Amino acid sequence: MYVSDDERLQLDLILPDLKAPHITQAYQAICNKVDMMTGFPARTLFTQLMTREQQASSGIGEGVAIPHLRLPKLQKPFILLARLARPLEFNAVDDYPVDLITMLLSPGSDGPHHLRRLSRISRLMRNPALLEDLRNAADADALRSLLEQGSQRLLAAA
């Protein structure tokens, strides 16, 4: 079965044990990794993420945050999963600290595709059984496998 890039949720980076004492340091570490992989400047990304976070928390509840941005100079979509070594305060809608961050970055011109990806990520990250499995996964390979399986089930149910 053919699955378009737009439907497939392909993770570009997994950080299975991100250590950070605060959201600021977590985002700095993430932005540095994104910069190394994409060439998109870490400082620019960090500033935009923090501005967005101040406007509205990316914490959607149940220990999950889904920060997302459309970036005019980004060449292709980028999806990252970070599992935090210690949950951090994110001002989430349910006031629970966050230990799973799924970040979506899309090219500026990717409007409808960005929204579809964001919707799929949101549905995926609201599955309680998957969240428990992600929290207990041994390493990056196990995290990737769990998310790929969850994404395939989500597509099959659509």
TrEMBL record:
The keyword Transport applies. InterPro entries: PTrfase/Anion_transptr, PTS_EIIA_type-2_dom, PTS_SugarTrans_NitroReg. GO terms for molecular function: protein kinase activator activity. Keywords: Sugar transport, Transport. Residues 7-150 form the PTS EIIA type-2 domain. This is PTS sugar transporter subunit IIA.
